[in-house]
Protein 1
Amino acid sequence: MSAKKSNDPFFWTLFGAGGALSAMLIPAFLFLFGIATPLGWVEGPAYESVKMVLLHPLARIVAFFLVSLSLFHGAHRFRFTLYDGLQLKHLFQLIAVICYGGALAGSIVTGYILW
Amino acid sequence: MASTITIEVSRYRPEEESEPVFQSYEVPLRSDWVILDGLNYIKNELDGSLSFRWSCRMGVCGSCGMMINGEPVLTCAAFLESYAPGPIRIEPLQHFPVVRDLVTDMEDFMGKLTTVKPWVVREEEKPVEEGEYKQTPEQLADFKRYSMCINCMLCYSACPVYGLEPEFTGPAAIALAQRYNLDSRDEGNDDRMEILSHDEGIWSCTLVGECSEVCPKDVDPAGAIQRYKLAGATSWWKSILLPWQK
Amino acid sequence: MNRNAHHTLHHPKWYRVQKPIFWWVKRFADIRFIFRELTSLAVAYSVILLVVIYRALLTSEAAYTSLTTTLREPFWVTINVIALGAVLYHTFTWFNLAPRAIVMRLGKWRIPDLMIAGGNYAAWIVISGVIYLAYVSG
């Protein structure tokens, strides 16, 4: 009757938090840095002022959570996309390790770069 | 006079063929006829060997669900005219084994349904003399939507996750579990969480949302499962952070 | 649970179909679903870009200038336009689906789904506006 308890509640929480945070913050960031400034629609702020804002301790903390949770969001969703879209359920453990392991590694690297 | 419409019916007679074939019939295109009327016309007038399930022909019994042009539909609730000029392709509900023609086997669901305890669970029944368990209209409203399920299996047919992983408990069974979880008289929440918070339970769902799209009773199983996940995640964190609380 | 689906027993004559690998290419709604799931890659790409910006910022002004120059290449602009499209789809689907999981109440009154989604959109517009103003005012 009772199978092993699922780890999914943990990863689903990260997935949810990352999904909400990325939905709120990424569009504006990506539009400004990736499209509007490169195309000259808006003038990008000078190096010093970008540095001042983004390196503010609070901004670093927000950035770290945004990056880490978004990576876990992506990992969780992509893991299930591989199950549903390509029927790779038999590679269950390998896929989980690669996806969540990637997100964890990415978070560590991000923490290292930020501090 | 009355025009006709072509119905292409999937036939599977295991003693004759190893896989289904389509057979075409012409039925009168009457404005007051639903697809089920067309099937009954075939059965009564054209070909008595056609097998399919039906009973109430008014969207209550949940036995006449079939794939119509690839979509799961209650055939008693779909007018022939809305598919004119045709042809209309009728197949058995997908994701279930086909027993014969349009008849599928639903034993898998029946088994799953009982495992989620879809009844009011009480730790202790109070004596009859103490009267009934009362409920306010607001308390009723909390679960009423989920109680409308007629077990028609359209949601299982629409759910790709169930199609890919038959172990998945599936939309209707989880929605019915949630119907009792949200019932103020019920005390079976922990039992059901134990049963459903597994990889094959609520955590298999990827919120495709098709189950709620096809539901003829507007039950919204997809919503029920997401709410269940939120409750499941909350109780999981509680068990990690506050293990002494039970 | 871990019960195998038990309609497999004893009926060799029942007809069963295996779902094809690419089951989702046949219906628009299924393609839309897979696309929604694949926005996860765009989300991951976007935050990696943010980390790359941070790294350049912390290295030197020259590194940062060289990065902004690279981002002007048509290749990267194209990538970012595609990524922004996918991320916006993620944002919209996320806000629209959030009320399905969350039931919020004020006393006895259950806040309608539309208001929860609307609150998400309002917060999103305000936050995006603040980021935009902070950015252009340098």
Protein 2
Amino acid sequence: MTSTIDLVAHRHSTAEHELRDEVRQFLGDQRAAGAFRPRCDAWMTAADPAFSRLLGSRGWVGMTLPGRYGGHDRTPLERFVVVEELLAAGAPVAAHWIADRQMAPSILRNGTEAQRQRYLPGIVKGECFFAIGMSEPDAGSDLAAVRTRAVETPRGWEITGTKLWTTGAHFAHAIVVLARTDGTPGDRHTGLSQFVVDLPHQAVEIRPIVTIDGEHHFNEVVFDRAVVPADALLGDRGAGWRQVIAELGHERSGPERFLSTFPLLEAWAAQTSDDPVAAREVGRLTARAWTLRQLSLAVAADLAAGRSPEVAAALVKDLGSRFEGDVVETVRRVAGAEPRRGADGLAGLLADGVLHSPAFTLRGGTNEVLRSVVARGLGVR
Amino acid sequence: MSDELHEEIRAAVGAILKGRDSQDDFDRSLWKDLCDTGFHLLGVPEEIGGSGGGLRDLAVVVDLLAFHGARVPVAESAFLAGWLLARAGLSIPDGVVVASIDQARVHRRDGLRLSGRVRTPWGRHAGHVVTTAHDGNVVVSPVSAVERQENLAGEPRDVVVLDNVEVTAVAPVGVEPDEILHRGALVRAVQLAGAARAVLASARRHVAQREQFGRPLARFQAVQQHLAALAAEVTAMRVSADAAVLAVEASDRGAAIAVAAAKATTSAGAHVVAGIGHQLHGALGYSAEHALGAATTRLWSWREEFGNESYWHDRLAAAEGSVWSVVTGGDR
């Protein structure tokens, strides 16, 4: 039994530094040209297909994919650098986010050659967007309780069920669905499979879920005996759970798990230099962000080395998502600024931050679930 | 830091540490064993009498000693005094040699003499103190008079009183007080992470063994949640200290920021770790007989030494550039 979660600090290569400079320069130019306004939680909420295409043309989407699929053969750590620069700047990356983060690696690993040819080049160009159908009305934190069913028929797979909280399904070109192909819901982790369903689909209805920020980022996606071809199965039949778990390391520890409110911190810090109370708080949050970044980077390095640090990723997400809320509360409390939805500057960033804060510690696995993953990793559960 | 060499160091020092239970403020027998194997001066160049090796090698030893609450001044001798002497190109005097935090004054009367009252951890057990003069010169002198003080963990935090003491060696180097502060902050960050790990290890053992209400504490979800939060903070402390050591060893541009952030993180984490640690141990951990207190009193002491979290938060806030440029620390 190890006495701590094993993580090793990573030191950047020269190539990573040069790439960072390049991205920073690009983002500075884009901001100056008015191409975007920094937003909190931009990876969830700021979808801008034109900006995604622009990033694709720079080679910054699907960057780790092999050249034969249009990718750039970059390392996961180079991707980390690009992504964290985009997030820290609050750039509108939501349109391609899920495709880039999760579906590209998943399709590369689990997909057939035909699926790779079909989806990966578009992802790399920043033109093919994805949604992921995981949660359901009766399966939130308890994902293994999914009821959506896929039945094999002579025409292909027939999918029936309802997915909830599906980010970006209203603009996605395809959705990956976790569905039961075999057994009953009581079988839990066995008998689940993943499918890629092209959107729009005549038997798939996408209904908006409006959240307390008054906006539409999420959807309820209803599959009403939606028929998809036999080759829509992603990976092996019955291997859905294992495939989803393998994605979690990528999903949980990335820089988006501590940088969602970073644009607010940066905007506030730019106007607090004369106030010693505010400065100390900026310093506190800076130190915390520095450490969280080291943790996130260490997990990325572990992933890049071919390991799957599920426990460390859960731990980083727990710390990082709490930090995101800490930033919001600190700025609100110390700055005394009143949040205003849609406003420029601090008031608008603060409004986004406050209204999105419940999501930080819910999405991608609630923090309580994450902590039980950590407890199990420590051998006490 | 998990490559083979470090595993070997860990195993060797771990073997030396086995079965110690000294109640003195200085574990002389442990110190002797460390001296015999050269671990007391790891990371100090062989040319000046050290054992060679890099800063990360030394950090492994310091971390492990902190984990065990070992009562020996390796942080003060190798990490601080050894570093100052290496900077100055002066050889290491025999016996225990430690570094002072404060500067002293050098004057000339029958040769070079040193005067001042300098805070010197472990001063009472040292034969020599390495200190810096107001002009930044590195000076070695014998320790004669000492005012004894202790931190919350009972570790010697003495004031060495230098009254016209004859200088043993001096070298014009120009070490700034801020450099000593950073070096001290770095070693305390490593030690804080080590002590925090001890709290976690003890908590894991305790909740697995201790039964209440008919089952092990580990079976309670509330306990599991606490333990996970503890592990998270301990990991954050450890990775921040590791990253700072890495940055300093490589002389990265962002090394000073890394040290500031690591000391801030480990100092702030001390409260979380000691708090959860004691809560999980219940009343048993509050007894002086339990080893937990050795770790938590060190956490409470070390977080204040060489700048507490507020001090380093202010330093980070004053750093040049955007928050993001500080956070990414320019490690090249």
